[in-house]
């Protein structure tokens, strides 16, 4: 029995007050992505989070700029949440999959980095934020048909180092800490194009995107498994990614384990092994948020059956009539992941994206596992 499984069994027999040994500083970070709409005042459960990363700001002409029409209103709404949770931190996340196209240019020279960092400070001060999250997808790699260079590896480190130095100066002036964090890829390819052992010294957290490991593939698979399954042809897992970072010299408390609040689906999947690791075609609506899965596919009349992959600690759904297979995250799999965070003394958990769990089922599972 794995250590975290043994702890899980023990926790079930303990009173609620005893079901944690984690310090209060353990992070629970939500990426909030409203796009072009204004958030409702009570839409985000402030007391269940330590940090919010608002997605996304863009990079234009080497500067951090607003990404959407209602960013100003949304920053005001998020800052107002500090009335409920005074320790809550609000950061802006810059880039993302679509808006990482100009990072390589922005990081290229000392002068281009200065322009980017000046604009970062201006942006944080303009909206009274607590810091900046760099979501460059990815240094030295094509990503979404982005410009990239071999020297991105060193320039990524330089950008984060100089940003940290500037934020430290501004923080002393403001008498408060300004946070820096990064969203990072889960593949070995990512950290081979970065200097994570150096980078870790310049950020408060490394938000490890341990999801999207499957999706768009010609066979089914877990897109955020905790452990690797021997039958998985891609040999992926969150555990493997975490160990890659640890072996690269990253300290455990800098790693924040990422989890998805959405699932992915395949069609034309045969019933062998209830569809797990079988050939199939990604469905048109391949991205399914947890709220829609819970309200439709998990209902008794849906035709779907839930299965549990005990090797990967992952749930999945299969409908033999429609031959549809769905991989997703639920409260049980997140309970295992919170224990994993505790076992390895990681910095906490983050998730993409808040609106995928409208009833806070997944967020409550994270809180139950990580908070006293």
UniProtKB/TrEMBL annotation:
Keyword list, A-Z: Carbohydrate metabolism, Chitin degradation, Glycosidase, Hydrolase, Polysaccharide degradation, Signal
MF terms in GO: chitin binding; endochitinase activity
Annotated ranges, domain GH18: 26-372
Presence of keyword Membrane: no
EC number, UniProt record: 3.2.1.14
Cited CDD domains: GH18_chitinase
InterPro entries assigned to the protein according to its UniProt record, in alphabetical order: Chitinase_II/V-like_cat, Chitinase_insertion_sf, GH, Glyco_hydro18_cat, Glyco_hydro_18_chit_AS, Glycosyl_Hydrlase_18
SMART domains in alphabetical order: Glyco_18 (SM00636)
Family: Belongs to the glycosyl hydrolase 18 family.
Name of the protein described by the UniProt record: chitinase
Source species of the chain: Granulicella sibirica
